[in-house]
Write a structure and sequence with these properties.
98 residues, alpha+beta, 4 strands, 29% strand, globular
Length: 98
């Protein structure tokens, strides 16, 4: 399946722009429609999953780590910036390369 801007990858996540691609897959900026924010979405090639049974576990751990780190940064910004954390997180997502 080819990934394209505008494609819905879940009922609430729409791909916006590819920001990186490499041997393992690609990384996209996407719009999370129900949260009304931008997120990064990483896709791993199907061939890699077939070659390495442990890859799915590693990928899950990576996602959990990023969610935890993102929540910690957001929590600290909320305390300091009184609710302006979402704008900062969106800028980070748009400006970062994976």
């Amino acid at each position: 399946m080819a990934l394209l801007p505008g494609m819905m990858v879940t009922p609430s996540v729409r791909l916006a722009e590819k920001i990186g691609e490499g041997g393992m897959g690609s990384v996209w900026v996407a719009d999370h429609l129900s949260l009304r924010t931008r997120v990064a979405v990483k896709f791993i090639t199907p061939e890699l999953f077939q070659q390495s049974p442990d890859l799915a576990k590693r990928f899950g751990r990576e996602a959990t780590t990023w969610r935890r780190r993102s929540r910690e940064r957001t929590d600290s910004r909320l305390g300091r910036d009184h609710g302006r954390a979402a704008a900062g997180a969106e800028r980070n997502c748009q400006g970062s390369q994976a």
